[in-house]
Amino acid sequence: EVQVAESGGGLVQAGGSLRLSCAASGLRFEDYAIAWFRQAPGKEREGVSCINSDGNYTYYADSVKGRFTISRNKANNTVYLQMNNLKPEDTAVYYCNVRRGQMYWGQGTQVTVSS
């Protein structure tokens, strides 16, 4: 059974930082691309960032470009989303998506940015 787990969410003031982590079991994590999505109350889920299996290609939504950094650590099979200069509009549940044809989702981690 594939399980995906996010961690690292929390409450932070505007301008602060958080680092989200995504790990998965039940598959060869290093073979999968990883994407981060987020969903704010009353809004549709949106893509935030992704990284390919090799770690040499990354994508960022315009809304987070220059503030968020995605990376993967092959030694511990974890993908990180470093979020700096957080804004209240970044408040959402953040989901990790593990994809290679099939997609697997985590349960999400809440990020709340206070003004």
- The general outline is globular
Stretches where pLDDT is under 50 for at least 5 consecutive residues are none
- Would you list the SSEs in sequence order as H and E? EEEEEEEEEEE
Secondary structure class reads mainly beta
Number of strands: 11
Average pLDDT score: 96
Helix content range: under 10%
Largest sheet: 7 strands, mixed
Strand content: over 45%
* Cα radius of gyration in angstroms: 13 Å
- Helices, by number, come to 0
Termini, distance in Å?
Answer: 40 Å
Describe the structure.
With 115 residues, the chain is mainly β. The protein is built from no helices and eleven strands. It has strands spanning 3-7, 10-13, 18-25, 33-39, 46-51, 58-60, 68-73, 78-83, 92-100, 102-105, 109-114. A hairpin with a 1-residue loop joins strand 9 (92-100) and strand 10 (102-105).
SSE blueprint and pairings:
Elements: E1 3-7, E2 10-13, E3 18-25, E4 33-39, E5 46-51, E6 58-60, E7 68-73, E8 78-83, E9 92-100, E10 102-105, E11 109-114
Parallel strand pairs: 2-11
Antiparallel strand pairs: 1-3, 3-8, 4-5, 4-9, 5-6, 7-8, 9-10, 9-11
List descriptors.
115 residues, 4-stranded antiparallel β-sheet, 7-stranded mixed β-sheet, mainly beta, single chain, 0% helix
Summarize the structure.
By secondary structure, this protein is mostly beta strands. It contains no helices and eleven strands. Strands 2, 4, 5, 6, 9, 10 and 11 form a seven-stranded mixed β-sheet that branches. Strands 1-3-8-7 form a four-stranded antiparallel β-sheet, with no helix packed on it.
